[in-house]
Specification:
Length: 253
């Protein structure tokens, strides 16, 4: 560097805008939720994480989050979860079930179960959380997790994709209901083929290998890809609401 050149400008560390804010990650003990939790805890958020059955997996987050057991399909569980979490700034709902038809579960039963788990439970929790935020005058943020299968036609995905598509639409209606004076932003993240969570088994089986071989996507998605978008949408000054954001490397194109 020439001695006459001005010294390089050093970046100034900006305090996190979500430091001290309370965020609930519903169903957040899996791969995608755990990655989001790590991002948020580094930013100083106060985390609550709910799980349905796998207490042992959830305990990995116990050092950084308050854990709650809740089945979002059950109204009493949703109420208890929101009561225990206290006043919230943010809610992210990671809850999901792959809804695969099997020998032990018919198509009809699988469809009904998927609607409960992938649509009704998450949307009801989001609406109930939004009502509490409104009641306290909180200018908060809600993020729901959908799927690439909700935005493109995948053969054999009817139970799962239909419920996730309904969730995306219901979330956008909620966003419209919450805009303006209440200013509660509601958005949806639709992950593609992620090497995390429910898709890991399918990737291991080679089900999605052709997307790489045909150069449709450059790589499989990572949990951190979703976590970064979730973190951005939770930013208090974020200017986005009512949107479905695909995090899929271009697969839905």
């Amino acid at each position: 560097m020439n001695l006459s050149d001005p010294p390089p400008v050093q970046p100034v560390a900006r305090p996190s805008a979500i430091r001290g804010l309370s965020v609930l990650l519903a169903g957040g003990s899996g791969g995608l939720g755990a990655a989001a939790a790590e991002y948020l805890i580094k930013d100083g958020a106060r985390l609550h994480v709910s799980y349905s059955h796998d207490r042992e997996r959830a305990q990995a987050l116990e050092p950084i989050a308050t854990l709650h057991r809740a089945d979002l399909v059950e109204a009493v569980d949703r109420k208890r979860l929101l009561d225990e979490s206290g006043p919230l700034y943010g809610l992210v709902v990671f809850v999901g079930n792959p809804a695969r038809v099997s020998e032990s579960l018919s198509f009809e039963d699988t469809l009904r179960q998927s609607i409960d788990v992938n649509f009704a439970g998450p949307l009801l929790l989001a609406r109930e959380a939004a009502a509490r935020m409104k009641g306290k005058g909180t200018r908060g943020a809600i993020v729901l997790l959908s799927s690439m299968q909700a935005v493109q036609l995948v053969v054999g995905s009817t139970p799962y994709a239909t419920a996730k598509a309904a969730l995306s639409f219901g979330a956008r209606i909620l966003a419209k209901e919450c805009r303006g004076g209440t200013d509660i932003r509601v958005n949806v993240v639709a992950p593609g083929v992620m090497d995390a969570g429910m898709a890991q088994a399918s990737i291991a089986s080679g089900k999605y290998r052709r997307y790489l071989d045909e150069d449709v996507i450059p790589r499989y998605g990572r949990a951190t890809d979703v976590a970064r978008v979730v973190r951005f949408l939770l930013e208090p000054d974020c200017y986005i609401t009512g949107q479905v954001i695909a995090v899929d490397g271009g697969l839905s194109l």
